[in-house]
Design brief:
The complex is a heterodimer of chains A (440) and B (585). Chain A has helices spanning 131-134, 155-165, 180-192, 216-230, 242-255, 269-277, 305-313, 353-375, 382-399, 407-421, 424-427, 431-437, and strands at residues 10-12, 15-18, 22-26, 35-38, 41-49, 52-57, 70-72, 78-81, 89-90, 105-108, 125-126, 139-140, 144-149, 170-178, 199-205, 234-240, 281-282, 288-296, 316-323, 328-331, 337-338. Chain A has 440 residues and is of the alpha/beta class. Chain A folds into 3 domains: 8-72, Elongation Factor Tu (Ef-tu), domain 3 (Beta Barrel); 78-108 and 141-314, 3-Layer(aba) Sandwich (Rossmann fold); 353-437, no CATH class. The model of chain A is unreliable at 1-5 (pLDDT under 50). Chain B starts with a strand and ends with a helix. Classes of the chains: A alpha/beta (440), B alpha+beta (585).
Chain lengths: 440, 585
């Protein structure tokens, strides 16, 4: 990579083809994926055919004329990394939103992947205080997990809470098509918590051109790699909302005349998303990148190509649901899953954690069956009645997203509820745990 | 003289090279870029324009870069030392790579060329040999690794000299062979072979006639896979594909296991890296890693190498099969491979087939599956590759091109069901939807009945039938209500549940239950069939549910106890008491 890009800059002024998102011109000596400035707007090389170079203009091509100035920079997209990043917010190009300069070393974004044999198996528990997560779907450093949520659900609020309570050295927010309101919300919450110095934000709001979004996750993850791999820090990356990222991908692929696959998404959607999510890693020296993302659904449909491909990539998913019995949003214990929880529960947390978790979810399932019975007009047994009471209390005291307690307290609460509604036989815990922890 | 060309076009990892020299379809070439050489494969030739897919990122690549063609197809290096290794899709030894991040254009030696192996000759001067004949043997972990006449040798050769017993390095000459024209050929421990060409160094490939014991009941008892057979596991995400594949790789009665982690999560491969060197192989007492080779092309590694990874894994399996070994090949997931094909086909602007996949997808898949199989080698020994692939159907919908194409190629179908996964019935293989065609092969039926008792297959069909009837009455009960159906319906339903809980379900995380050998499976099957064939007396339907729940619980205690141990027998006695309570004599 050339250090002094100025010397290599080449200027052209003759465009012969323009589409909504791309421009083509004759040029030579251009590298694939190189950046250029087209009429003052950032663009990237996406195709080279002999001496014809096609550039994707991130901000769109509105108003660009055939004699516009095109300056090639001789380098791929980069981010300046350094301690200076902390506490700052950047746009999709890695420029500080509040102006000013950043000192640091320039790094290409979207770099190579970690050699799988150099990874370590994730094993560190991330406490969030939310029982629906810690008790039932414990998160682990180095994990990648999205919220699957409908647009009206408070996923950004939950995510901000998780980020603040998780003991991360750095929190990196990648705002992909964030509404300005949500951007300001994140900023305020982090500021109020006095956590701004631990935050780095890369923000593309709905006011910015959609194709620019494609740069945001790579920017955020490059910053994360800097802190995790070089500084050995625990980094939490928040990406919201990757459905909008996928939509931007489909816009580009459509304009490049590619044949769409399922749900009008590009055929490479799986690889494109995996490239981001797989940046989640536990390094042997303690540094880690944990990714919590948001995939918004269209009325709960998880068979759509975006959530479907995401589900195959991530290590579980978290579902939020409004529980009408208690009038609160809960973390759905049936549909949520953290695939890595087995690595920490009962090991990094109390020994009876797995059993208590399973027993409570099973009883909650019994309550759901009782509810169906009730709705279908069948009579309820005494056990059914008790499961319904239990379910309501369980929802209120443990599943609701406003819960904020330690794991041990969650387990104690569970025993309290068990003891109040059931006999030890009905709960079916191991005898040794009943003797040790059951509330008499 | 190697052919030379020049880059004239770049679209992502599809690069167009102009050359006026000789090139071959699927030939490997290297593109010079700064100080590195990027490996690529020819996928189309149009006049002087050669389309190549680059196995690496093409960022920064420029038109005019020099290209050198290698003169051969993508090939793997075969020799002692492949076991316990972690390779990428192009057979680079991942442990030899420097740094935490993968570097573009870094290719490492798959084997240890300086390591010494104890060689023992298996042939003598004057022997007539052909490709695949065993010349000698070296110890690789616990396997007698055969040094063979290279598969590329055509016709008959005479052994002119063979190296004496002793320790040698792999590139030393182990034998000198003379062809029919009197020309001499040196043979070392190492040979190369193009991955897309099947190794045919065997005499005959019969219909499979033995069963591969996997230790997983829903396979062995309900839908057995033949040794040398093929099967596939489609399932939506979260239905337990990976746990099941890991269980198979741990428990199955294979001499060695090759795992192709194709486009899946890196942390899953790390789990194997971390656990297998620690876990004991119950059959040999050695570590599981010693019989395992991993080909890892995780989802964030270059897409084009994904296709290569499954072929690399298959070729390594064929190499060991030619040594007379029983190989289990697992590929997770073949859908990612098909997607890689789709991405490339798309960039080449080919007319797409269903869902944008290339038109020849079914042919590619069935060709690949056909490379598995049981073989008789030319020296009378036998070897096998049993292949099980997973499929990740989009949206969990089995009516998509990869699942449908695979269904035509594979003989066993293990359908993972979301519903079973949701109700924590693991392994979540639907016992009714799934099938094994091998259960209809007369030679397999004979094999099973000979080894597991003459009633084995009759019993298997009997419990399958019981599962089906149970499901049917369950639907009736749901529609008509508990008291709207005859009492018998409840009993039929619960008998099916006994089969489901005791045989279909198995705890992959329990030390004892995770592995169930045939002897044990036979014992439990006969026990369950006894229960199913007996009649029970109940006053009302309300008694049925708690009674069978107790019975199932007791059965499960047996599954959790070591076979034929005191605990097992005690639990069995208690089960007998429960059965006698209501059994009609």
């Amino acid at each position: 990579m050339e250090k002094d890009t100025k010397a290599f800059q080449r200027v052209y002024t003759k465009l012969f083809q323009l589409t909504k998102a791309t421009v083509s011109l004759k040029a030579s000596g251009i590298g694939n994926e190189e950046l250029a400035i087209v009429d003052g707007r950032l663009a990237q090389v996406v195709k080279i055919m002999e001496d014809i170079v096609t550039l994707q203009v991130f901000a769109g091509t509105e108003g660009i004329a055939t004699d516009a100035e095109v300056i090639f920079t001789g380098k791929a997209p980069t981010l300046k990394v350094g301690e200076d990043l902390a506490g700052r917010f950047f746009n999709a190009y890695g420029e500080p939103i509040d102006g000013g300069q950043i000192m640091g070393e320039e790094r290409e974004i979207g770099g190579p992947s970690v050699n799988p044999v150099r990874r370590k198996q994730p094993s560190e528990f991330i406490a969030t205080g939310i029982a629906g997560i810690d008790l039932n779907n414990a998160l682990v450093t180095g994990q990648k997990i999205p919220f699957f949520a409908d647009p009206d659900q408070p996923y950004n609020q939950v995510m901000a809470n998780v980020a603040l309570r998780a003991e991360a050295d750095k929190i990196i927010l990648g705002g992909v098509g964030l509404t300005n309101d949500d951007y300001l919300y994140f900023k305020r919450v982090f500021d109020d918590a006095g956590a701004l110095d631990r935050i780095v934000g890369f923000i593309n709001t709905t006011e910015n051109p959609p194709v620019e979004r494609l740069l945001v996750p790579d920017m955020a993850l490059s910053a994360a790699e800097y802190y995790a791999s070089e500084k050995g820090q625990k980094v939490l990356v928040l990406l919201t909302d990757l459905t909008l990222y996928a939509d931007a991908l489909s816009i580009v692929s459509n304009r490049m005349d590619q044949i769409p696959s399922k749900d009008s998404m590009p055929g490479s959607l799986y690889s494109d998303l995996a490239r981001l999510y797989e940046k989640a890693v536990q390094f042997p020296d303690g540094g880690s990148i944990t990714i919590i993302a948001v995939t918004t659904l269209s009325s709960g449909d998880i068979t759509h190509a975006i959530p479907d491909n995401t589900g195959y990539i991530t290590e579980g998913q978290l579902f939020l649901r409004k529980d009408s019995d208690i009038g609160k949003v809960i973390v759905d214990p049936f549909r949520s899953l953290s695939r890595l929880k087995q690595l920490v529960i009962g090991k990094r947390t109390r020994e009876d954690h797995p059993q208590v978790m399973n027993a409570a979810v099973r009883l909650y399932a019994d309550a759901a069956n009782a509810k169906t019975k009730l709705e279908n007009g069948f009579d309820l047994t005494d056990y059914d009645e008790r499961t319904l009471d239990f379910a309501k209390a369980y929802s209120e005291k443990l599943l609701a997203i406003d819960v904020n307690i330690e794991v041990d307290a969650m387990l104690e609460t569970a025993y309290e509820l068990f003891g109040k509604h059931f006999s030890p036989v009905e709960v079916g815990l191991k005898q040794e745990f009943v003797e040790k922890y059951w509330k008499k | 003289m190697k052919s030379i060309g020049k880059v004239t076009g770049i679209i992502a990892n599809l690069v167009i090279v102009e050359t006026r020299e000789r090139v071959a379809q699927n030939e490997i070439c290297f593109i010079k870029h700064d100080d590195t050489r990027l490996m690529a494969e020819v996928i189309k030739i149009m006049g002087h324009k050669v389309y190549v897919q680059v196995f690496e990122s093409t960022r920064g690549l420029k038109v005019g870069s020099e290209v050198e063609f290698a003169g051969h197809m993508l090939e793997v290096t075969l020799g002692p030392g492949l076991l316990s290794k972690n390779f990428d899709g192009l057979q680079n030894d991942l442990d030899k790579m420097t740094g935490i991040f993968l570097k573009r254009g870094e290719y490492t030696d798959p084997l240890e060329k300086d390591k010494e192996y104890e060689f023992e000759p298996l042939s003598k001067e004057g022997d007539k040999v052909i490709a695949g004949s065993w010349l000698g043997e070296v110890k690789e972990n616990w396997i007698g690794h055969k040094i063979m006449v290279p598969f590329a040798f055509n016709g008959e050769f005479t052994v002119k000299s063979i190296t004496k017993k002793g320790s040698y390095k792999m590139n030393d000459t182990m034998a000198v062979l003379v062809d029919k024209d009197g020309k001499e050929h040196k043979v070392s421990m190492v040979q190369k072979w193009p991955v897309k060409v099947p190794i045919r160094a065997f005499k005959e490939k019969p219909r499979p006639f033995k069963v591969l014991e996997t230790g997983v009941r829903v396979f062995d008892t309900l839908n057995p896979i033949a040794e040398g057979g093929t099967g596939f596991i489609p399932g939506p995400f979260g239905s337990g594909k990976t746990v099941l594949q890991h269980a198979l790789s741990k428990q199955a009665e294979a001499d060695l296991v090759v795992i192709a982690a194709c486009g899946e999560r890196a942390n899953e491969v790390v789990e194997i890296f971390t656990e297998f060197p620690e876990l004991d192989d119950p059959r040999t007492g050695r570590k599981l890693m010693e019989r395992t080779t991993i080909i890892a092309n995780t989802s964030n590694m270059p897409v084009a190498a994904r296709e290569a990874s499954v072929y690399t894994a298959m070729t390594i399996s064929e190499y060991y099969r030619a040594m007379g070994l029983k190989v289990l090949l697992l590929a997770d997931s073949t859908s990612r491979w098909a997607q890689a094909l789709r991405e490339m086909s798309n960039r080449m602007e080919e007319l797409p087939g269903p869902d944008g996949f290339p038109m020849d997808l079914p042919a590619i898949i069935s060709n690949f599956y056909s490379r598995a199989g049981y073989v008789f080698l030319n020296n009378g020994e036998s070897g096998s590759i049993t292949f099980i692939g997973t499929v990740s159907p989009a949206g969990g919908n089995l009516k998509e091109p990869v699942t449908e194409s695979t269904k035509k190629a594979a003989r066993c179908f293990y359908a993972l069901s979301q519903q079973r996964a949701d109700s924590k019935r693991y392994p979540a293989i639907d016992p009714i939807e799934s099938y094994s065609k091998y259960l209809e092969y007369p030679e397999i039926v004979e094999y099973l009945n000979k080894n597991n008792g003459e009633n084995w297959t009759t019993n298997v069909w009997f419990i399958k039938d019981s599962l089906l009837r149970s499901k049917e009455v369950y639907e009736q009960i749901n529609i008509l209500g508990d008291d709207g159906v005859p009492l018998d319906y409840h009993i039929t339903y619960w008998k099916g549940e006994v089969v489901d809980f005791v045989i279909s379900q198995q705890d992959a995380f329990d030390k004892i239950d995770q592995r169930s050998e045939f002897k044990r499976q036979r014992y439990m099957l006969e026990k369950v069939v006894d229960v199913l064939k007996s009649e029970y007396k109940f006053e009302s339907f309300e008694e049925v549910n708690p009674y069978f729940k107790r019975m199932i619980n007791q059965f499960k205690q047996m599954n959790y106890s070591e076979f034929e141990s005191e605990k097992f027998k005690k639990n069995e006695k208690e089960l007998e008491v429960i059965i006698q309570e209501r059994k009609v004599a």
